[in-house]
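Section 5.1 Outputs to date
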Amino acid sequence: MKTLFVFMIMSIIPLSLWASGNDLRVVYGELDFYIPSNPSVIGYLGTDSEILIAKYSDEPGKSIIGFSLDKEVNTGGCGPRVFFKSVLGKDASECDEEAVESFRYVFMKNRDSGTWRSGNKEIFYFIGSDKSTVFLLEEGFGNKTYKIESNFLSKKEIKKIFASHL
């Protein structure tokens, strides 16, 4: 009975973890990510956003990597891919200008920003010294926008999270 219960719980949680060398492989939303090994805590909150957090410090709010399914991003009336390209490009677009400028203010101030692309995946990054946010979009994947955040990883370490996609 105990085995059946564990199997049932694992079948409804869209998350898997495997250790691989110096990294921990996280399968989140049917996508593979590689985070630093040995987090002190991993937590999953199965809300609409399906939040997964890996914490590497005992201090509150320090050394965190978070994954979520971002259903709430205000894309200014256009699709996520067009929106993020407008944010990065300063081009006129069909997106609401206030939404674009608001996003730039929140996510681009004092941050390195750009894209990584491979095949049908496009990754939009906004990396700062104290907080970084990355959005992953995959064509033909139900228009889901994955959001990955960290408050301690460097650009090189963040890019390594996406090793299986680049």
